[in-house]
Each structure stands twice: as structure tokens, then as C-alpha cells.
């Protein structure tokens, strides 16, 4: 997490004797000049009624496109009422305690945004005026360090940087905010068809950064994406899991943590800690009130042919507090066998060659993976993520039709699944 926002250095307040001096000064000897006729004071700008963050507001949980329904599933399981899937996320209504809970407990969300409200603006001057009307002082502390990110879609305002600057100016004018591109706290402005929507990114660093995994391999899967893949594969707490290409151990650690009832956000900080009204004690209670289930059976397995990856997986499991539940082995996929536990889920994020010349040698690897799973993993279900249907066919496994499509870094991945083999 980036360093916390610092308050703006305050001017020393006037001492009491200074004030006495002002109020008890002798009457001026010269006649006071006649007061000029005053212009009528400008009317206080009307506060937009949509900008009231006190009670209930829209909360947006973001995920990779294609994983929305799995995220809605998780929101429902976590007690959020009526989640609605939208492209790249899901929305619920709630208050600040729900925002804290979502950040702390959701495994599948990449970030949690709190919607401040929307207004129309067809040009920058209008945006500037309306951004100044937002009651920033009710939402953020004086002098907070903050940054603004803007995006424009099909709108007359098309210059993202200029749009962001208008909100930055409002923040500086209204609460003396310090605009810092490194600030943990981010205000997001989205302009879509001339409607400006302002949100607070309440997470800060993306939620896949759980604050635990330090050792990562070459192409690690994001924790939140891995968690939703497990959910889509019907993974349930306590079920055995094997990842034969585990890299830094993402799937294995997620399964072990889910089964141990650990909160994904237990070891990190969040941007909402710098929003007005944050109650550190109430949040600490939420952190501590995690349902600590019984310690599950140690049925979480990973292997990889790369010894460095196994070292990373072990170190990560240790930091996560699940080392006693996980077993990592250095082995090529051709040498693995099913562990001696009731069959569960094999989940794989294999290498897939995206550059010319990388794909052809992979057919043999995928063929071997398929053969090993068919011959040695009877009764286990398989879930595999890959953008290449040709490589998947080379596995000769009875995959179910219509793999789930997940967009990841501009690549369309398919999540291919089998019933128990
Ligand atoms: C895309 S990475 C997996 C990343 C992993 N999901 C994570 O989150 O860190 C693919 C992994 O497959 C491993 N691998 C490639 N060929 C292998 C083989 N023949 N046997 C076992 N592992 C292999 C690589 O060492 C690499 O760690």
C-alpha cells in the first residue's frame, strides 16, 4: 500500500491573547470611512441531493469480464442482498460497513468502488462547477492526499486529463487536498454519454494483492481471478485440490485459505481507512469476527517442474499460515500421480504460447497432461484455463461444451471443465 495520505501542514492557530488583542483594541481615533454598499452575497450553491454518502449508496465490485456471475454468487454467499451483474463487475446497495466487509471478505473482487453520484456535464466549465458542488468536506478529510482518474466514453468532454484536472481543482479548492499521483486514495470520474459519475476507489491497491504473497513466478494468476475460477468449477471448502503447474501456488493457497475460513484481506490496508467516518474499532471487530472454521484436512497439493516455483509456493503458504495444509512437490507433469485422498478438483493454468513458434511444442505437453489425468486421476474433476481451443483438443479429455469465457489482459481465456473422470 502506498504511504498514507498526510494532512496538509496547518498554519499555527491564533493564540488566545492574539484574539484578545483584536477584540479589545482601543477604538480608532480617525473616523471610520463609510462602508461601501455591499454586493449581495452570492447564494450558496445547491448541494446535489445525490451526493449523500452517509447511509446507503451503490457499491460496485469489479472483476474480470466473464466472471460477473461467479462474483454475484460470492456476494450472495457473503450476505449482500440482490447483487446485479454489470459488464466487468456487480453492484449492490449498502453503507460503509458493507464497503469494509466487501474489501475484507470478497475473494473474487479486484476493487470496490463507492459511488458518490452522477450529474450531466456537456463541457468542462460545467464539470468544474458541478465538481465544486460535491460536499467533499463531508466525505474526505482536509488536506488528504488523493489522485483523480478520469475516463470518457461517447461524450462531448473527451479529454480525460482535462476532465481529471477539473475534479482535482475542486478537491484542492474545497478541502485543500494534495493531488499526488502516488496517493492511495483515488477518485474515479467516468463520463459516459455526457453523464459524469464520481466514485471513490475504496480498495487502494488492487485486491488481488492480499499482502501475503511476496514470491511470484513468471506468469502468476491473480488471486481474485483464481478464486472465481475455483467458484465456477464448483469448488467447495475442504475439497481436495491439485494444481500440477502451480507456479507460485495461487490456486492451492486460495483453496487452503477458503477451507480454513481465512479472510483474504486480513493482512493488508485499504484506501477507505482515509475516508471520513472510518471507524477503526468497528473495522477491527469485523476483521476479528471472521468465522474461523475447523482446521481442514491437508488436501491442497501443487507441483511444478521448476524448483524455484516450489520454493516460492512453500514460502507463500508459510506467510499465509496454511503451510501445514499444503504440499508442494517439484515434478514434471508426466511424473505426477493422484494423492491418496478422496478425489476433488484438478485445476491448471498451463503455459500457452502467444508468440509465433511457441505453440507447436506445446501440443506434446498438452497431450501428456491429458493422458496423465485420464490414466491416474479417476474420479477427479478437471478445470483448465487456456485461450487456445486447439491445444485443449490435444488433451483428449471429455470437456463439457461451451467453456466460460474470461477476458484477461486483452486475451480471451476459456475455462474448460470436465465432470469427474
Ligand atoms: C502460467 S504458469 C502457472 C502460474 C500459476 N498459476 C501461478 O499463479 O503462479 C505455468 C507453470 O507451468 C509450469 N510448467 C511448464 N511445463 C511444465 C511441465 N512439463 N511440468 C510441470 N510444470 C510445468 C511452469 O514452470 C510454470 O510455473
CATH architecture of the largest domain: 3-Layer(aba) Sandwich
Backbone CA Rg? 27 Å
Distance between the termini: 43 Å
Overall structural domain count = 2
Please characterize this protein's 3D structure.
By secondary structure, this protein is of the alpha/beta class. It has two domains: 57-201, VC0802-like; 223-263 and 295-417, Vaccinia Virus protein VP39 (Rossmann fold, 3-Layer(aba) Sandwich). The protein contains twelve helices and 15 strands. The chain has an eight-stranded mixed beta sheet. Strand 7 and strand 8 (195-201) form a beta hairpin. The chain starts with 15 loop residues before the first helix and ends with a strand. Mean pLDDT is 87; it is low at 1-51.
What labels would you give this structure?
421 residues; alpha/beta; VC0802-like; Rossmann fold; 2 domains; 20% strand; binds S-adenosylmethionine
What's the gist of this structure?
The chain has helices at residues 16-23, 68-77, 96-105, 124-133, 136-139, 160-175, 223-232, 250-260, 280-288, 307-320, 362-376, 389-393, and strands at residues 57-62, 84-86, 89-94, 111-120, 145-153, 178-179, 186-192, 195-201, 241-243, 300-304, 326-330, 345-348, 381-386, 404-408, 411-417. It has 421 residues and is of the alpha/beta class.
